[in-house]
Specification:
75% helix, mainly alpha, de novo design (two linked rop proteins), single chain
Length: 126
Amino acid sequence: MYKSFMEMPVWQDAMQLATLIFELTEKLPKREDYGFTSQIRRSALSISANIAEAFGRNHTSDKINFYYYARGSATETQSHCEYGKRVKYFDEKQASIINNKLSELLKSINQIIVTLKNKSQPKPKS
């Protein structure tokens, strides 16, 4: 059992991704600061924030909801990344690295959701 959300590998991976997105978007045109740059940074950072919030919840159903929010933020970030690639803000390699990290995060988040759902199911009586 983790003592802090910061010990969780899924949170660490999400924070690493948010940092990568921040560094990658430092090179974007300044005209995007309040548009695309802000949106992709917020969606990427929201993944780790929702994982942290799930950790702090006591009820399993609340935890599951916040993992769903994290999953939604991850897919939103994937969409932003695809846009960035299409408008040539990100090259193919950069987009691929981000997308691979997001895919791994989504797998981890989905595994957590399934585990929590199974845990919350009532056990059949023998």
